[in-house]
Specification:
By secondary structure, the chain is α+β, with helices and mostly antiparallel strands. Helix content is 35%, strand content 16%. Strands 4-1-5 form a 3-stranded antiparallel sheet. Strands 2-3 form a two-stranded parallel ribbon. Strand 2, helix 2 and strand 3 form a beta-alpha-beta unit. The protein is elongated.
């Protein structure tokens, strides 16, 4: 989900258009990271207008940069939750961006599933 610091102008509305976020400078994960790849795929139609201001390897550093600067970034809600709950980060809803990731659980076909493993797999399917 695209996010910005709580004092950023994009933080004050329910939803924004793609043109709004394309005028902003972004800090992104390094090439090859899952989050970076998901964002790059979603932005593929807008590459000529996408303003990447910085690329970094550390998610914690990117979260802090976005929280205290005019840069915006893209994070999973799980990674950003501590800063969201302290109101240092705000989600930027952009309906044009498809940022869903698909995860798979692989198991051995002969593996016996205990009640705990079945419960865990049920949770994974519900997320």
């Amino acid at each position: 989900m695209p996010m910005c610091g709580s004092s950023h102008p994009l933080g004050g509305r329910q939803a924004w258009g793609i043109d709004d976020v394309l005028t902003e400078r972004w800090v992104v994960r390094e090439k090859g990271s899952d989050t970076g790849q998901t964002l790059a795929t979603a932005m593929r139609l807008y590459l000529s207008r996408w303003r990447i201001g910085m690329e970094h390897q550390q998610i914690e550093a990117i979260l802090e940069m976005v929280a205290v600067s005019s840069l915006i970034g893209c994070f999973s809600r799980v990674a950003a939750q501590p800063l969201i709950s302290r109101r240092r980060l705000v989600e930027i809803k952009v309906p044009e961006l498809e940022l869903q990731r698909r995860f798979y659980v692989m198991t051995h076909k002969a593996k016996y599933f205990t009640a705990g493993i079945r419960a865990f797999l049920d949770i994974c399917e519900g997320v």
